[in-house]
């Protein structure tokens, strides 16, 4: 198993000034459209509680729009990695992840975004696993968007496919290389 993600802790005293870290997880074979197209993928998210070793993580794993289709957990980085590595999204597993250190960390805001996402329904094209993950990251650290490290989850009001976002857009936005779970 790959070691839990870490970033250099900040000496800042306040939550807002603390350095943080976010990770995105990918199940590349999930959401397989009919026909000759490759799978679209599925993703989950995780954020570290400032400079601590505690993480909150989750994903919207069903297309029902019901709150129970979203899981949210808090634990250590090792627990987060194990949960995603062993978790199934239907018949597929999460297989990869990328992380990025942030210049700011607002875990309480990110938790509010995660809870709002859990209760906001589901739309395959506009309100899905990717858009909800990006909403959590944006709430966690506005710096991500302001610095260009968090690409928009939508193109012309439609969500990018999670595989494209993870493999192409995040590669160009300064996230870590892709790691296998």
Question: What would you say this structure looks like, in words?
Answer:
The termini are close together. Helix 2 runs antiparallel to helix 3. The protein has 181 residues and is an alpha+beta fold. The chain has 5 helices and 10 strands, in the order E-E-E-E-H-E-E-E-H-H-H-E-E-H-E. About 7% of the residues have low confidence. The strands form 3 sheets. It has a 6-stranded antiparallel beta sheet with strand order 4-3-2-1-7-10.
Distance between the termini: 6 Å
Describe the oligomeric state of these chains in a short phrase.
single chain
Q: Kindly name the structural category.
A: alpha+beta
- Helix count, per DSSP? 5
The helix-strand sequence is EEEEHEEEHHHEEHE
The largest sheet is: 6 strands, antiparallel
Main-sheet strand order equals: 4-3-2-1-7-10
Averaged pLDDT? 86
Q: How many strand units? A: 10
From the alpha-carbon coordinates, what is the Rg to the nearest angstrom?
A: 15 Å
Name its key features:
two-stranded antiparallel ribbon; 181 residues; 28% helix
Write the layout of secondary structure elements.
Layout: E1 20-27, E2 42-48, E3 54-60, E4 70-76, H1 77-86, E5 88-89, E6 92-93, E7 96-102, H2 107-118, H3 129-140, H4 142-146, E8 154-155, E9 158-159, H5 162-172, E10 179-180
Antiparallel strand pairs: 1-2, 1-7, 2-3, 3-4, 5-6, 7-10, 8-9
Helix pairs in contact: 2-3
Provide a concise account of the structure shown.
This protein is of the alpha+beta class. It has helices at residues 77-86, 107-118, 129-140, 142-146, 162-172; strands at residues 20-27, 42-48, 54-60, 70-76, 88-89, 92-93, 96-102, 154-155, 158-159, 179-180.
